[in-house]
């Protein structure tokens, strides 16, 4: 079976070589692109399994590249950028990025993010997420057909909003979902970015599924950005 193909989009030669060496050491196949124009050509020509994308490219802003790729592909895009403001992360994720890694980064963290992404691709490809009637993650089980959720075999007594939140996170396991995306999906555009309400519902949901809500195992908070369900 072929190793996954990764497209590295980075104009800084030193960073590009660091990522390429890391991927090479761990037996990943990869192509590189030093500009936005080259990135779009490579993505369209080779259909990589994952794109590692710098936002500060010399010709096209990375956000625009995300939008262009999203017009024809759902290939995972992990942003690797020196832009560390919450607004930059939110803009990238809302444009369609799957994850966001801030420079400087460790190669261990990069490899961990890749593993999470490939696990999500594996589950999706095998019908274990969107196409399955049952979702299982550690002790958590969601029976979509019955509209019920269980923890360690015991049914959870969830409100309709809590259940919708849980299902939304489960169907995007491993992916960071922004506050805006979640509120639109759960309540509609009239509730855009009502973070206060979202936090209240997320807190009550965590109390029901987490052994220790202060140290969550299932739902990870990305401060100022959104939430992600972890694969346990």
Automatic annotation (TrEMBL):
<dbReference type="GO" id="GO:0005829">
    <property type="term" value="C:cytosol"/>
</dbReference>
<keyword id="KW-0805">Transcription regulation</keyword>
<keyword id="KW-0963">Cytoplasm</keyword>
<protein>
    <recommendedName>
        <fullName>Stage 0 sporulation protein A homolog</fullName>
    </recommendedName>
</protein>
<comment type="function">
    <text>May play the central regulatory role in sporulation. It may be an element of the effector pathway responsible for the activation of sporulation genes in response to nutritional stress. Spo0A may act in concert with spo0H (a sigma factor) to control the expression of some genes that are critical to the sporulation process.</text>
</comment>
<dbReference type="InterPro" id="IPR001789">
    <property type="entry name" value="Sig_transdc_resp-reg_receiver"/>
</dbReference>
<feature type="domain" description="Response regulatory">
    <location>
        <begin position="5"/>
        <end position="118"/>
    </location>
</feature>
<dbReference type="GO" id="GO:0045893">
    <property type="term" value="P:positive regulation of DNA-templated transcription"/>
</dbReference>
<dbReference type="Pfam" id="PF00486">
    <property type="entry name" value="Trans_reg_C"/>
</dbReference>
<dbReference type="Pfam" id="PF00072">
    <property type="entry name" value="Response_reg"/>
</dbReference>
<feature type="modified residue" description="4-aspartylphosphate">
    <location>
        <position position="54"/>
    </location>
</feature>
<feature type="domain" description="OmpR/PhoB-type">
    <location>
        <begin position="132"/>
        <end position="231"/>
    </location>
</feature>
<dbReference type="GO" id="GO:0042802">
    <property type="term" value="F:identical protein binding"/>
</dbReference>
<dbReference type="GO" id="GO:0000987">
    <property type="term" value="F:cis-regulatory region sequence-specific DNA binding"/>
</dbReference>
<dbReference type="InterPro" id="IPR011006">
    <property type="entry name" value="CheY-like_superfamily"/>
</dbReference>
<keyword id="KW-0804">Transcription</keyword>
<dbReference type="GO" id="GO:0000156">
    <property type="term" value="F:phosphorelay response regulator activity"/>
</dbReference>
<dbReference type="GO" id="GO:0032993">
    <property type="term" value="C:protein-DNA complex"/>
</dbReference>
<dbReference type="InterPro" id="IPR039420">
    <property type="entry name" value="WalR-like"/>
</dbReference>
<dbReference type="InterPro" id="IPR001867">
    <property type="entry name" value="OmpR/PhoB-type_DNA-bd"/>
</dbReference>
<keyword id="KW-0238">DNA-binding</keyword>
<keyword id="KW-0902">Two-component regulatory system</keyword>
<feature type="DNA-binding region" description="OmpR/PhoB-type">
    <location>
        <begin position="132"/>
        <end position="231"/>
    </location>
</feature>
<keyword id="KW-0597">Phosphoprotein</keyword>
<dbReference type="InterPro" id="IPR036388">
    <property type="entry name" value="WH-like_DNA-bd_sf"/>
</dbReference>
């Amino acid at each position: 079976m072929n190793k996954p193909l990764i497209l590295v989009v980075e104009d800084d030669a030193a960073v590009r070589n660091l990522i390429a060496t890391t991927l090479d050491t761990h037996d990943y196949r990869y192509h590189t692109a030093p500009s936005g124009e080259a990135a779009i050509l490579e993505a369209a020509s080779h259909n990589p399994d994952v794109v590692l994308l710098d936002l500060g490219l010399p010709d096209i802003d990375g956000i625009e590249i995300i939008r262009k790729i999203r017009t024809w592909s759902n290939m995972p895009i992990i942003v690797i950028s020196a832009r560390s403001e919450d607004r930059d992360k939110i803009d990238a994720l809302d444009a369609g990025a799957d994850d966001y890694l801030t420079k400087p980064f460790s190669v261990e963290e990069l490899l961990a993010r890749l593993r999470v992404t490939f696990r999500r691709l594996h589950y999706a490809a095998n019908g274990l997420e969107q196409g399955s009637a049952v979702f299982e993650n550690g002790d958590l089980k969601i029976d979509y057909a019955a509209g019920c959720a269980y923890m360690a075999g015991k049914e959870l007594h969830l409100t309709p909003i809590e259940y919708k939140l849980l299902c939304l996170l489960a169907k995007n396991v491993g992916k960071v979902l922004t506050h805006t995306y979640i509120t639109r999906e759960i309540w509609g555009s009239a509730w855009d970015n009502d973070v206060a309400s979202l936090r209240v519902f997320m807190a009550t949901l965590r109390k029901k599924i987490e052994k220790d809500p202060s140290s969550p195992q299932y739902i990870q908070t990305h401060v100022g950005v959104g939430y992600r369900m972890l694969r346990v």
